[in-house]
Amino acid sequence: MTHPQSTRAAALSRLADFTANMGHNYAHKRNFDYGPNADTEQDGWRDNVSRLSPYIRSKLLTEQELITAAVKAHGAQGADKFIAEVLWRGYFKGWLEQRPEVWADYVTNRDAKFKKLKAQGGLRKIYEQATEGRTGIDAFDHWAKELVETGYLHNHARMWFASIWMFTLKLPWELGADFFLQHLIDGDPASNTLSWRWVGGLHTKGKTYLATKENITQFTDGRFTPVGLAAETVPLEEDKNYKLRPLKIPPAPPAAAAFALLVHEDDCHPESLILPQKPSLIIGVSGSDGKSPKGVSDKVRAFSNGAVTDALVRAADHFSCDTVTWNKGEKLRDVLAKAKLERLLSPWLPVGALKDAIGKEISGNNVRWVMREYDAAIWPLATKGFFPVKKKAPDALRAMGMEL
Ligand SMILES: Cc1cc2nc3c(=O)[nH]c(=O)nc-3n(C[C@H](O)[C@H](O)[C@H](O)COP(=O)(O)OP(=O)(O)OC[C@H]3O[C@@H](n4cnc5c(N)ncnc54)[C@H](O)[C@@H]3O)c2cc1C
Predict the structure, then answer these.
(1) Residue ranges per structural domain of the chain
(2) Distance of CA 194 from the midpoint of ligand 1 (Å)
(3) Ligand 1 atom with the shortest distance to the CA of 189
(4) Torsion-angle region of residue 103: left (phi > 0), alpha (psi -120 to 50) or beta?
(5) Per DSSP, which regions of 183-298 are E strands?
(6) What separation in angstroms does the CA of 77 have from each of 111, 125, 297?
(7) How much distance in Å is there from the Cα of 248 to the middle of ligand 1?
(8) Which residue from 1, 53, 89 has its CB within 8 A of the most atoms of ligand 1, so it is best to mutate?
(9) Cβ(4)–Cβ(10) below 8 Å
(10) Are both 8-97+378-399 and 259-370 of the same fold?
(11) Which CATH architecture has domain 8-97+378-399?
(12) How far is the CA of 117 from the centre of ligand 1 (A)?
């Protein structure tokens, strides 16, 4: 298979190809993982799912555009299942944004588990077998290699993989989540951390996801019949109840003096941001390596660097202004001073590794955050479970002028 091109043009092309499948086809076939079959790629391998996640994760394509395309082609009812899945993403983003300690604790515990791995030979052996695809569980071994080779796994495979990781191999969930972030091109702090927690019974307390041979055989279309899987799950436990910190939506930045606009890998579509006026300079920054203490794969790094580069090229054209790159080790203040600019605007930087790495430095530069209308409409709804979000989302999206 070829890897996704990290450009807006490639995102729009994939969207155009997949839109016809967002209705009945998606609702009935999305749970099947037919596998990455390079021979049929041109004929639409995996056309039961969109494979748009790297574009959505980097906002080369926005959720608003995705839902608009789905409704236009199939109607809100016809595209209900697809829209619900897109809303899961917004739900997870909003949930983590309002409980940032969940991410901070994940990072602390992940690092502690890596230390434990160094000290315990037995645990280290199982971890190495799992990440190198040598456990002897056919399906699991295939997915470990598929993830490393392609940078993608089908949603159902991610669920089975996480379940086997925790309940059959009894490995710490944080190390599995980290393995995903090293290799998933769509690796996202919210969707990834909260999905692993969901499978383990931490997100919906006490409710776990068990991967079974029958389910895997059915939904891989008979490709696998794994043996030796755990027959039951014991929900993971933690001694914390994370408090909701309601999201404060930043006010729209007022029109004023000249400013620089930041473009980071979490938001690579500056053209659709609501800005008070044209920026005088665009500053690009990427930094996917911080996602894991082990760094990320070349594919992950290339996609996020490419997405930022593509955004800079488009932004220079759209806003007719200069662009620069904020390189590692450089002070943002110096980049601004060189351009004789004092004001900075930045698209919202969500909870995650990039914010951990550069959030403080951006905040120290008189920044005004720009939050997208869609995120401001959906994220605050994520106070508890997903279903209230799904129920309230249509009204919230209609209020911002979307047709649903
Ligand atoms: C353990 C685990 C880890 C995951 N890690 C990530 C991650 O790091 N990044 C990520 O983007 N998704 C993650 N997901 C969610 C989901 O698996 C992927 O979004 C989806 O498989 C991407 O493929 P697609 O674009 O073909 O999805 P489609 O089925 O075509 O869905 C369209 C879009 O809806 C969103 N979406 C679909 N399913 C989900 C879901 N269950 N949760 C949240 N959003 C969803 C995605 O943006 C996706 O691109 C994870 C799921 C699990 C179980």
Answers:
(1) 8-97+378-399, 103-219, 259-370
(2) 11
(3) 8
(4) alpha
(5) 259-264, 281-285
(6) 45, 49, 39
(7) 26
(8) 53
(9) yes
(10) no
(11) Alpha Horseshoe (1.25)
(12) 28
Give, for 26, the enclosing helix (H) or strand (E): helix 24-29
DSSP state of 202: T
Backbone angles phi, psi at 186, to 5 degrees: -90, 10
Residue type, 139: A
How far is the centre of ligand 1, averaged over its atoms, from the C-alpha of 357 (Å)? 24
Q: Which residues pair with 358 in a beta bridge?
A: none
Residue count of the chain: 404
Nearest Cα residue to atom 35 of ligand 1:
86
pLDDT means over runs of 10, the chain (404 residues)? 87 97 96 76 71 98 98 98 98 98 98 98 98 98 97 98 98 98 98 98 96 98 96 96 96 89 98 96 93 97 97 98 94 96 96 96 93 98 97 97 92
259-370: CATH topology: Rossmann fold (3.40.50)
Which DSSP string do the residues of 321-353 spell out, in sequence order? Answer: -EEEE--TT--HHHHHHHTT--EEEEE---SSH
Report the half-sphere exposure of 123 (CA within 13 A, side-chain side).
13
CA dist 217 and 233 (Å) reads 20
Architecture of domain 103-219: Orthogonal Bundle (1.10)
Under 8 Å between Cβ of 330 and 307: no
Query: Distance between CA 70 and CA 56 in Å, rounded?
Result: 14
* Ordered strands of the 322-325 beta sheet: 322-325, 281-285, 259-264, 343-347, 367-370
